[in-house]
Amino acid sequence: MIQNCFEVENYNSCKAKLKHCIQYHADILNLAEQLDASFSNTMFAHLTMTSIICASLEKQFIEDDKLCAGLHMLAWIADLFLACVAGQLLFNASESIPHAVWISKWYQTDVRLRKDIQFLLLRSQKNLYITAGPFGILSYPLFVSVMKMSYSVLCLLTS
C-alpha cells in the first residue's frame, strides 16, 4: 500500500494517501497491542499445558497405544505450531514495513512528505508480536523451545 503512495505527482494526493497509510499502520499497532494484552496470559497457560500434555502423550506412545497417542500428540503439536506460525507471520509483516517504504519512490516526493515518512519509519522500528507470558513471543523458536520442554518433561516422567 505504501509503495503506491508516491506514484502520483500531486502533493495533496500523495499526502492523502500517506495519511491513510499512517492511519492504517496506527490502527494495526493498536490492534496488535490489544491482541497481546488479551492473549498473553492465555497463551502462556496454553503453551505450558501443551508441553505437559505432549509429554504425557509421548510417554503413552512409548509404553502403550502407539496409534491413538501418536495421532493425539500430532494434533496438539499442530495446534501449537499454528499459534506460533501466526505470531511469526505478524512479526515478519511488521519487519517488512521499512523495506516497503525504502523500495517506494519516496525520494521523488515533496520535502514535507519526507518528514512524515521519517516518522513512519521511526514508528515501524518497533516490531509487532504476541507474547506468551514469560516464555517470550509466539514464533518458530518458541515452538522449538516448547518441544524441548515437552521432551524434558518426558524424561522426568520416564525416570
Automatic annotation (TrEMBL):
Gene Ontology CC terms, in alphabetical order: plasma membrane
GO biological process, one term: signal transduction
A GO MF term: odorant binding
Claim: Protease is one of the keywords in the record: no
UniProt membrane topology term: Multi-pass membrane protein
Keyword Glycosyltransferase (UniProt): no
Transmembrane annotation, as ranges: 69-91, 128-147
Keywords: Cell membrane, Membrane, Olfaction, Receptor, Sensory transduction, Transducer, Transmembrane, Transmembrane helix
UniProt xrefs under InterPro entries: 7tm6_olfct_rcpt
One Pfam family hit: 7tm_6
Record's subcellular location: Cell membrane
Protein name: Uncharacterized protein
Origin species: Zophobas morio
Lineage of origin: Eukaryota, Metazoa, Ecdysozoa, Arthropoda, Hexapoda
